[in-house]
Structures are given as structure tokens and as C-alpha cells.
Structure to design on (890 residues):
């Protein structure tokens, strides 16, 4: 999260130095070596496209050979029309983006595994189309491609290497900017926890379509460079194997890191050339190394290097990561709640649930529930296991379809909306079973929580415009403030998987409240915590909600806790409301006691 | 009309091979939740063993079959022990990717060991054919169909009636729960790969006996078998078999009636249509999840 430090960042400087180094050395290379280096550069860009699509958004694609072909043949077509490489590059990017978006579109309907199968189909059909489209591709005989002409100047292979280096720099900078900030966080969030991501206002399908589009743009650009690098292409080149090789580049290099794509490209395209002396055997070695890397370094070269750096480099931690525990401050609840203003303390939205019915097959989980929750109030939702509490929350947040009845936030009726759209109306929720983003830090979670209120879009982010810088600064401040309120202030840099359960629970809650939802749905926040921890967490959340003004629905089994902190208690049993009043009245109601304690 | 029946008969015969290989893919998918991209290269490697022992060394096809079956078993065990088990139940895509690596390794290993030539394995299949009401039934292909049906039946019986089969089905639904109930997870995983590998061998030898044997010769069949498995629902074994026969017939019909371009992209079209309309396939079920 060093996005806010002065630009350009350290990583950009390192990348520039590396590119300049290749520039400097390239004069001494033989013609064939220039070709190999150019191919490595091009495949770095293709690898980076997988870093975005697979590494960040979690979508493997084996259709990249067809995408590369699209870039190549766009270059061929534009070149035949007598236009220069500048037009070819624009064309390649446009065509690549379009095809990428089109392949991505099914993700609005189908899961990532099935989409991966669809990309396999794309790969096969793409190659067949190239074979059949003989006017453009020359069919099986292939087509010759003239040297590149950029702005009227014809370039030699060495010149093409320079062009490729510049384009790689541009592509990597673009990809890096997208990955650092709201867009990259969204991709990482939906990869690691689709459920939480959609509750935070991310549309899973469209995010993936966007990732496909960006990935396609990079490959389209690479295709144009590739066309000129190889001089001659035939549809035979764009096989499933090529697709797999491009994916292998990203994975073997480390799909979480852009620079991993460069390492992968060097290994996949460069090393077999170095191993040429070993003859046919080199591909066997290559395949074996790939399997070994998958087995022992699942995060690839880059991941391995980062792990070693963390372990042995400067700034290393003395001990391995033990779960980080926090001591609860049990007294906080009473003291803080007494101090903060009670009741409808400004802000918050009305939540009206009218005659809502939810059924799973023959089982009616929620059976005609009507509850009206005043703005700014804290309502406890209680009931025995299977009473329909979580189902009701799921219905409100749009995860399960409502059979009949309506849910309204203020004036807006929520019927049949997708979970992501509720975030726009200010509905936030936590999860009974933790739904955290593995591998990301506490601060990342708090930034992800503010996805819907970032105040800038992907374009502003890619170009690092002022709204991006301002938005990031503001979100970071809010994140740190919320972390402080929840007692996570000193843990913001910690990865969530290193935290103890109780602390993880706090992070889950923090992510839901950091964007200041107008309606906050808490699903058993104290479950699995010690009584002190539970009191502490719920107390902190309620202090925050009153501070920012939110309506709170608290599902919780700890009746004593609920009775103490809520303005009103709604009790469910067998999907129906059996009690709905202030805590002291509900406590004495006979059927409530019976449902809970038995007669 | 006889063109139609001819296409159906030919299609069913091709479909038998698809069904076997689809079964091999679906079996792995059902228990491991992963697609084995090395299915074709594993089968091809074993088919080369068959050819090497049976024809090149001249020991006859019986010895060839025995050695290649042994090879398939060992290969299945090696893959399970060397790749699948170390990867554990972790990230599924890692297993898929590892099988891609294995595919590269095996393809090039096969080429290194057996050369890149095109071979004819001269399988001992009956020649000639019967004429049934104007429809030609090729005896070699009919034999292959018979073997495919028999193989499928054996698998069905094993899965349904043996202890191992019940364990495999339990493991497929929930490995952890199965292990807690005393299903030996390792044994199940091991046998799944062995059976899948054997199915691959049978399919490879059958394809090679009606066409030729060369490195990567099974890739096309793999794509078709994979399509068949998707059509049937990937995790459904009866679905894979049905999908295999349906695809075989559809392909034969499109060769008979449709333009060439349609035949070429047919598998892809089927995959796309199935994914868009019914991602779970004909027989599969999408698992429900709770928020």
C-alpha cells in the first residue's frame, strides 16, 4: 500500500533500470539473440495479461493463443492496407479488448471453471477460423509479414526490440496502476471471497469482464509486436499448447506479481534457447521443472523470492507468524454506550420488511415476516437455530430470492435486486462464517470495504489522476480511523491469515462498517468469541454506528448481550415473528421463553 | 434415409471411444474436481508401450497389452503419488496446471523415447463389414464399440457394487466426511487415477488401431471427449458416456449433412451452447451453496 508515496514508485524505477539495461546491452547481441530477447519481451506482456486475469481476478484462460492470433492478424490486415505500426498497435489493442470482453461476457452467467472451459473452446475455434480465413491468413501456407514501419520509418529487428521494450514498459505501467488501487483490490477481493465482494457492491460478472477486456488489450498489443518479430505466421502457431505456455509463464513466474511475468517469460522462452545444446531433451526438462514448481513453489519464482526476502532480507521478522491475539477490554461496552447518544441519533435509514417469505424447496425458512425498523435504531434479531434469522438477513442483502413480500430501504424497494446493488443503497453486512480475503492485509480489507465510495473510476486510476490520489488518501485515513475504533490500529499491516479467530472476526466487521453503511446487518458477530471478546466487539461496532449514524440489525445468540445493547428485540421461531418489543417486555413474554428455553 | 442411418451407426462407433475417454476425464473430475489435461498424453504414452512391445519387439499383441496395462497402472500410480497427493486438497487450479506441465513432459518424453514417426499398430481386429439394410457396419469399429461398452459396464459395476466404488462415490461428494467414515482416501485417490489411466490406454489403443500412432495423436480425440464430458455434466459418469455417444452421432451427422466449417467447430459450438443454457450439462447438478 505504498501507492500514496511520491510518484514514480520504487518499482517503476527498478523496471526502468532493467529496461535501460537491456537497451544498453542489445547492441552487442547477434541477430538471433535479438530475436530471442524480443520474444521474451513480448511474452512478458502476455504473461502480465494473465497476472491480471488469473493472478488478480482468479480466472484462468486457455484461450490466449486465439487472442494473440487476433492481434497478429489485425497487424497483418492493417499492414496490408498500407498503414503503419502505430495504427496496427491501436487496432491490436481495440480488437484484443473487444474479443476479451466478448469471451468474458459468459461470466455474467457461469462460474470460473466453466468459463475456463469456454476459453478452451475459443482457442480451438479461433485456430480453425484462422485456418479457414485464407484471404487474410494464407491458410496452412501462412503469411509473410514485412518489417515494421512506425511513423514512416522502417525498423530493423533491433529497432523492433526497442519498440517492444517501450511498449512493454507502457503495458506494465498500465497494468501496475490498475492493480494498485480500487480496481486491483476489487479483483483480489472477488477472487478470495466472492460472497464478501458482492456484499461490498462489486458485480462479480462485470469485474471479470473488465479483467478479460484489459487482458485482451495487452495480448492484442503483444500480437502486433509478435507479428513483426517472427516475420512469418501460420495458423498452426496458435495452438492450445501456446495458450498453455502463456499461462505457464505467468504461473511459473508468480501470478501475483507483474515482474513475475518477466521471470516466467525468461524461463519459458529464454531457457530452452540456452539449453539448445541438450537437444530435444530441453522440453522434457522444461515440463519437469514446471511440475516441480507447481508442487513446491505454488507462488512461482516471484513468490519464492518474496518469501525468501521476507525471511532473510533486511527488515525480516524474528519469529514465524504465530496467530496474533488481542486482549478484549470488557469494560468498554458499558462505559462507551452510556456516553454515546442513544436512539435515533441522526442518519441511518428505515428498513421495512413486509410479509417476506423465503422457501427452499418444500421448507419455508421465513414465513411472512413483517418488521419495521426505525432509522438509527439498534434491533436485535433472535431465535433458536433454524428460526430463519440468517435467511432473513440473506434475503435483505439479496443472496437468496424472496418468494413474496418486499424489503425496502427508505423509499427504495429491494425486490429482486442483486447483492452488489444494495451496497449503493447503503446496506452493509457481516458474515456468520468469516468471509475474509486470504493473503491480504487488514488495511487491504478496510480499503476493499470502501470499494463503493472510492470516488474515482478505472480510468482515473490507470492515469493516476487527482481524484485517485485524493480518494486513496481519504480512504486510507478512514480505514485507519475505523481500525483504531475496532482496536486494530497496530495490526493494519498484518495478513489476515496470521490473526487469531477473534481478531479475524473484528476485521470482518470492520470491512462492513468502514464505508459507513446506513443499514448494518450483523450476523452473529459474537459467535465463537469469549463473552468478553463478544461484548468488546459488539460494543465497538455500536459506538461506531452511533458515531456515523446507522440502523443496526443484530443477529445474535447471546441473549444477555442483545437485551443490553438493543432498542428493540424481534424474536423469530419457525420463520415467524413471535415477539417484537423493547427488550424488557420480550424477556418476559411466555412464547419467547418457551421457544428459547423450552417449557 | 440410408445416409442418415449410416451416419448414426458410424457416429455410435466413434462415440464409443469418446465415451471411454470422457469417462476417464469425468472420473477424475468427479473425485478430484479437476480436469486432467494430461489425459491424452498419458493414454498415448501407454499406446506407444503397446506398440513397442507388441510390434517392434515382436512379442505379439497379448504381451503388448499386458505390458502397456502394467505401464498404465504404474503411470496412474506415479501421477497420483508424485503430483496429486503432494498438492493435497489445496488450490484446484494448481492440480489442473500441474497436469498441463505433465502433458508437456509426457508428450516430449514420448517423442524422446519412441521417436516422432507415424506408426501403424496393426491391431488384431476383424476386417471387412456387414451390410445391414444398406448400412455398412465396419467390423473393426464394431469390435471397438463392443470393447467400449464392456469397459463402461465394468466401471459401472465397480462403482455401484464394490466397496471401492462406494468409497469413491462418497469421497467424490465430501472427501473429509468420507475419510471420517473410514473410507481410505489414499486408496480411493490411487484407484481413481489407475482406472482413469487404464481407460485412457484402452481409448488410445482403439483410436490408434483405426488410424495411426504418433506423438500427440490423441489430442483431437481428447477435445471431443472433453466436449462429451461437458455435455454430460463433467461430474456425471453416465452423463459422460451418454455425451460421448451423442457427440459421436452429432459429428457423423454434421459430416454427412452440414458444411465442413460446422463440423470443425462443432465441439466448440456444443461447449458454448451447453455452458450458456445448462452449465451443469445433461446429467450434472450444480452444487448449491449457503451464504
Amino acid at each position: 500500500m505504498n501507492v500514496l508515496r511520491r510518484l514514480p514508485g520504487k518499482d517503476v524505477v527498478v523496471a526502468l533500470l532493467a529496461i535501460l539495461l537491456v537497451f544498453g546491452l542489445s547492441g552487442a547481441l547477434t541477430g538471433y539473440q535479438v530475436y530471442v530477447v524480443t520474444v521474451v519481451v513480448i511474452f512478458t506482456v502476455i504473461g502480465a495479461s494473465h497476472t491480471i486475469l488469473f493472478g488478480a481476478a482468479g480466472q484462468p484462460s486457455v484461450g490466449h493463443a486465439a487472442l494473440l492470433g487476433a492481434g497478429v492478424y489485425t497487424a497483418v490486415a492493417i499492414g496490408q492496407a498500407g498503414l503503419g505500426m502505430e495504427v496496427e498497435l491501436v487496432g491490436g489493442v481495440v480488437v484484443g479488448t473487444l474479443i476479451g470482453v466478448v469471451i468474458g461476457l459468459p461470466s455474467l452467467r457461469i462460474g470460473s471453471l466453466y468459463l475456463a472451459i469456454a476459453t478452451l473452446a475459443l482457442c480451438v475455434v479461433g485456430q480453425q477460423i484462422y485456418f479457414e480465413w485464407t484471404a487474410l491468413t494464407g491458410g496452412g501456407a501462412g503469411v509473410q509479414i514485412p518489417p515494421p514501419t512506425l511513423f514512416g520509418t522502417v525498423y530493423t529487428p533491433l529497432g523492433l526490440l526497442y519498440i517492444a521494450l517501450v511498449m512493454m514498459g507502457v503495458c506494465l505501467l498500465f497494468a501496475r496502476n490498475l492493480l494498485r488501487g480500487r480496481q486491483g483490490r476489487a479483483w483480489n477481493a472477488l477472487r478470495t471471497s466472492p460472497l464478501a465482494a458482492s456484499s461490498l457492491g462489486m458485480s462479480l460478472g462485470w469485474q471479470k469482464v473488465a479483467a478479460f477486456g484489459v487482458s485482451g488489450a495487452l495480448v492484442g498489443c503483444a500480437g502486433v509486436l509478435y507479428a513483426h518479430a517472427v516475420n512469418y505466421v501460420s495458423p498452426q502457431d496458435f495452438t492450445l499448447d501456446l495458450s498453455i505456455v502463456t499461462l505457464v509463464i505467468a504461473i511459473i513466474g508468480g501470478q501475483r506479481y507483474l515482474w513475475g511475468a518477466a521471470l516466467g517469460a525468461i524461463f519459458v522462452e529464454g531457457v530452452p534457447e540456452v539449453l539448445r545444446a541438450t537437444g530435444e531433451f530441453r522440453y522434457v526438462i522444461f515440463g519437469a521443472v514446471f511440475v516441480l514448481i507447481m508442487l513446491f513453489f505454488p507462488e512461482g519464482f516471484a513468490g519464492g523470492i518474496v518469501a525468501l526476502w521476507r525471511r532473510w532480507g533486511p527488515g525480516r521478522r524474528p519469529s514465524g507468524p504465530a496467530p496474533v491475539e488481542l486482549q478484549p477490554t470488557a469494560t468498554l461496552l458499558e462505559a462507551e454506550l452510556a456516553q454515546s447518544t442513544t436512539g435515533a441519533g441522526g442518519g441511518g435509514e428505515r428498513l421495512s420488511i413486509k410479509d417476506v417469505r423465503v422457501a427452499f424447496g418444500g421448507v419455508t425458512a421465513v414465513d411472512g415476516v413483517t418488521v419495521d425498523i426505525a432509522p438509527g435504531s439498534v434491533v436485535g434479531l433472535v431465535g433458536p437455530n433454524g428460526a430463519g434469522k440468517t435467511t432473513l438477513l440473506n434475503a435483505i442483502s439479496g443472496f437468496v430470492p424472496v418468494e413474496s413480500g418486499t424489503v425496502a430501504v427508505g423509499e427504495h424497494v429491494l425486490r429482486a435486486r442483486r447483492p452488489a446493488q444494495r451496497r449503493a443503497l447503503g446496506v452493509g453486512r457481516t458474515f456468520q462464517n468469516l468471509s475474509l480475503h486470504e493473503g491480504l492485509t487488514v488495511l487491504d480489507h478496510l480499503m476493499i470495504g470502501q470499494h463503493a465510495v472510492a470516488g474515482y473510476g478505472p480510468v482515473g486510476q490507470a492515469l493516476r489522476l487527482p481524484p485517485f490520489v485524493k480518494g486513496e488518501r481519504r480512504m486510507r485515513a478512514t480505514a485507519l480511523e475505523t481500525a483504531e475504533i475496532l482496536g486494530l490500529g497496530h495490526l493494519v499491516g498484518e495478513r489476515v491469515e496470521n490473526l487469531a479467530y477473534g481478531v479475524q472476526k473484528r476485521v470482518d466487521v470492520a470491512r462492513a462498517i468502514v464505508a459507513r453503511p446506513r443499514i448494518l446487518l450483523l450476523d452473529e458477530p459474537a459467535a465463537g468469541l469469549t463473552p468478553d471478546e463478544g461484548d468488546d466487539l459488539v460494543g465497538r461496532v455500536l459506538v461506531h454506528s452511533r458515531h456515523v449514524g446507522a440502523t443496526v440489525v443484530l443477529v445474535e445468540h447471546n441473549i444477555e448481550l442483545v437485551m443490553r445493547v438493543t432498542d428493540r428485540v424481534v424474536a423469530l421461531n419457525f420463520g415467524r415473528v413471535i415477539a417484537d418489543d423493547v427488550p424488557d417486555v420480550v424477556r418476559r413474554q411466555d412464547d419467547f421463553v418457551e421457544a428459547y428455553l423450552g417449557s | 434415409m440410408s445416409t442418415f442411418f449410416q451416419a448414426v451407426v458410424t457416429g455410435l462407433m466413434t462415440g464409443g471411444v469418446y465415451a471411454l475417454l470422457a469417462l476417464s476425464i469425468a472420473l477424475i473430475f468427479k473425485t478430484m474436481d479437476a480436469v486432467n489435461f494430461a489425459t491424452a498424453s498419458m493414454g498415448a504414452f501407454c499406446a506407444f508401450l503397446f506398440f513397442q512391445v507388441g510390434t517392434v519387439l515382436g512379442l505379439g499383441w497379448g504381451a503388448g497389452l499386458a505390458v502397456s496395462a502394467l505401464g498404465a497402472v504404474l503411470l496412474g500410480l506415479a501421477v497420483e503419488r508424485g503430483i496429486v497427493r503432494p498438492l493435497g486438497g489445496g488450490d484446484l487450479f494448481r492440480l489442473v496446471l500441474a497436469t498441463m506441465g505433465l502433458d508437456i513432459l509426457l508428450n516430449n518424453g514420448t517423442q524422446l523415447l519412441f521417436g516422432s514417426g507415424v506408426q501403424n499398430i496393426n491391431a488384431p481386429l476383424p476386417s471387412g463389414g456387414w451390410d445391414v439394410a444398406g448400412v455398412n457396419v465396419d467390423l473393426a469399429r464394431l469390435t471397438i464399440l463392443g470393447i467400449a461398452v464392456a469397459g463402461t459396464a465394468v466401471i459401472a459395476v465397480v462403482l455401484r457394487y464394490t466397496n471401492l466404488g462406494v468409497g469413491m462415490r462418497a469421497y467424490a461428494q465430501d472427501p473429509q466426511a468420507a475419510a471420517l467414515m473410514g473410507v481410505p482416501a489414499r486408496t480411493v485417490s490411487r484407484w481413481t487415477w489407475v482406472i482413469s489411466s487404464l481407460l485412457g490406454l484402452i481409448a488410445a489403443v482403439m483410436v490408434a488401431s483405426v488410424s495411426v500412432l504418433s506423438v500427440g495423436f490423441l489430442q483431437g480425440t481428447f477435445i471431443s471427449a472433453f466436449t462429451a464430458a461437458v455435455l454430460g455434466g463433467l461430474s456425471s459418469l453416465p452423463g459422460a458416456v451418454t455425451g460421448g455417444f451423442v457427440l459421436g452421432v452429432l459429428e457423423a451427422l454434421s459430416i454427412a449433412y452440414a458444411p465442413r466449417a460446422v463440423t470443425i467447430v462443432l465441439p466448440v459450438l456444443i461447449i458454448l451452447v451447453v455452458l450458456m443454457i445448462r452449465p451443469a450439462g445433461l446429467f450434472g447438478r450444480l452444487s448449491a451453496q449457503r451464504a
About this structure: The beta strands of chain B are 129-132, 135-138. Chain B has one domain: 2-107+137-277. Residues 287-291 of chain B have pLDDT under 50 and may be disordered. The domain at 2-107+137-277 of chain B is CATH 1.10.3470 (ABC transporter involved in vitamin B12 uptake, BtuC).
